[in-house]
User: What shape does this take?
Amino acid sequence: MTEALTSAIESETGRLAQIPDAVERFHAARKLREILTAANRQTQEVERGAVSELKEGRPWRVVGELLGVSGSRAEQIAKGR
Assistant: This one.
């Protein structure tokens, strides 16, 4: 999935760069950024949910080890920071 998504984003960015009219290009780029920002928020929510699920019955240190981050970073993710 990641490869396909990366390819799609690169393709769309390239398409935007080819729009001849600067105003149209600006608005198209802004729209893409809005979409990507919304997707970023949604994926952060998924991350928070996963971290919260892992926390059940575990200390933050263990959660961090499972995720490859520090325990304090795992806690920050769960709190949305």
The mean pLDDT is 95. The CA atoms of residues 48 and 80 lie 7 Å apart.
